[in-house]
Design goal:
alpha/beta, Leucine Aminopeptidase, subunit E, domain 1, Aminopeptidase, 7-stranded mixed beta sheet, 21 strands, binds ligand BES, binds manganese (II) ion, binds zinc ion
């Protein structure tokens, strides 16, 4: 879809459809009032008759409204004005985009972006609106023989801003929104691909293509390279699979040569059967999503490169398939990680931390400004936080704060959990430096504690996205999270967040 920004009055728009909001109960938003005046109270008459109460999510499509130059006017319910916040704003845009797409307009001019949202700038409203509108057009139907096509799909969306001096920040925000939406779409596609297509090799090829498209440096470490580096922990996870593991490194250099890079590390288990500690059957298909950490850091890289942010960013993806097999790791096996620390594998299903720990040691060589790893790491995180917030851990308070703020800004929230030393005892092993599981208690925390033993040399944060990376049930599908959180974090670091 095509997007643009405009400032002007609603009654003067030559558009297939002009979209304005109505607050509950029956109160036109400011642009709505302008239209109403131009139409000699045509709109307020209709509203008074009770056809549009203003309930959040409701719609009313009108044709040939007098005094206007557009074919249609679409009224969107906004809920109570006092309760109109970020969530309601996004919901109203979502409904507008969907309705426009379904009601035959080729283009629409949306005045909802003029409605104030407490503490949020015009740039925020436009960026968010762009992301939400793009999301409504997302389909994953490449494996369907018959695709359901919209008969007259929406082709162009224009967001209105009130003042001319808002045009420039709004246009910049639009570009950012488009880049973030593309990054999310890439993350969703990779996540939704089945495990027999999206293998470690496929992820490596995707990274190489991304590097080609955007002029990035890409390096793919093979099994033998990793063996030479002593990555015994990462390699142990791939031993039960026919698919060779990879370690993908992508470097974007938009900053000064001397600027230390920010490093993102994404868990890339392309299918997690549990290994010899085999998972139960029901919903096991969803373990194709166990590479969503990798998908999100690749999507974030795409967005950053497209926005040409003035930062240095390095993305590292350890990727493998966790399968049972004759060569697979067994409970009780002991491996030596690249850091030299030994690990007793008490459960082969706690494989994410085993590939991440070696990647986290590997990234020391980049002398990072900070490292953030992203992983669908623990089922217990879904129990703790549900599908609302990602779990956040950090060894540096300022970094945690910045990531939490970025999540708020990007409507992609995280919630911090403790990383206190008191939990470290749970990882004790009788036979190695540590065990790879901590028992029944505090699952997401013991997993983070495990990782923290490999991240002592830099500022580090860990996002457990097990609950947020995809939806289960009837709406099964990847969400593209936490691309919004990560991109807003990087926009902030680049000083480009208005
Ligand atoms: N990929 C899973 C975590 C997961 C499970 C994410 C369900 C989303 C939904 C991870 O590799 C795993 O299996 N973790 C184990 C850890 C346990 C063995 C300590 C888990 O959560 O059960
Ligand atoms: Mn597992
Ligand atoms: Zn896993």
């Amino acid at each position: 879809m095509e997007f643009s920004i405009k400032s002007g009055s609603p009654e003067k728009q030559r558009s297939a459809c002009v979209v304005v909001g109505v607050f509950e109960p029956r109160k036109l938003s400011l642009p709505g009032e302008l239209l109403d005046n131009a139409s000699r109270n045509y709109l307020s008459d209709i509203i008074r008759r009770g056809d549009m109460e203003g309930k959040l999510g409701s719609t009313l499509l009108l044709h040939n409204v007098p005094g206007t130059l557009c074919d249609r006017v679409l009224l969107i319910g906004l809920g109570k004005e006092k309760e109109f916040r970020e969530k309601e704003f996004c919901q109203s845009i979502r409904v507008a985009a969907r309705t426009l797409n379904e009601t035959g307009s080729f283009d629409g001019t949306v005045f909802l972006t003029e409605i104030p949202v407490k503490k949020r700038s015009v740039a925020w409203r436009v960026r968010q609106a762009t992301i939400v509108a793009q999301e409504t057009t997302y389909r994953f139907d490449q494996f369907k023989s018959k695709k359901d096509e919209v008969r007259r799909p929406l082709r162009k969306l224009t967001f209105a801003v009130e003042r001319r001096n808002e045009l420039t920040p709004a246009e910049e925000a639009l570009e950012q929104g488009l880049a973030i939406a593309e990054g999310m779409s890439m993350a969703k596609n990779l996540g939704n691909l089945p495990g027999n297509v999206c293998t470690p090799t496929y992820l490596a090829e995707t990274a190489q293509q991304l590097a080609k498209d955007h002029g990035l440096e890409c390096q793919v470490l093979e099994q033998s390279d990793m063996a030479a580096l002593g990555m015994g922990s990462l390699l142990s996870v791939a031993k039960g699979s026919r698919q060779p593991p990879k370690l993908i490194v992508l470097q974007y250099k938009g900053g000064k040569a001397g600027d230390k890079p920010l490093v993102l590390v994404g868990k890339g288990i392309t299918f997690d059967s549990g290994g010899i500690s085999l998972k139960p059957g029901p919903e096991m298909d969803e373990m194709k999503y166990d590479m969503c950490g990798a998908a999100s850091v690749l999507g974030t890289m795409k967005a950053v490169a497209q926005m040409k942010l003035p930062i240095n960013l390095t993305v590292v993806v350890p990727t493998a398939e966790n399968m049972p097999g004759g060569g697979a790791s067994k409970p009780g096996d002991i491996v030596t990680s690249m850091s030299g620390q030994t690990i007793e594998i008490l459960n082969t299903d706690a494989e994410g931390r085993l590939i991440l720990c070696d990647a986290l040691t590997y990234v020391e060589r980049f002398e990072p400004e900070a490292v953030v790893d992203v992983a669908t790491l623990t089922g217990a995180c879904v129990i703790a936080l549900g599908q609302v917030a990602s779990g956040l851990f950090a060894n540096k308070e300022g970094l945690a704060r910045d990531l939490l703020d970025a999540g708020e800004e990007g409507s992609d929230r995280a919630w911090q959990l403790p990383l206190w030393d008191d939990y470290q005892d749970l990882l004790k092993s009788n036979f190695a430096d540590m065990a790879n599981i901590g028992g029944r208690y505090a699952g997401p925390i013991t997993a983070a504690c495990f990782l923290s033993r490999f991240t002592k040399k830099y500022d580090w944060a860990h996002l457990d996205i097990a609950g947020t990376a995809w939806k289960s049930g009837a709406e099964k599908g990847a969400t593209g999270r936490p691309v919004p959180l990560l991109t807003h974090f990087l926009l902030q670091r680049a000083g480009k967040l208005n």
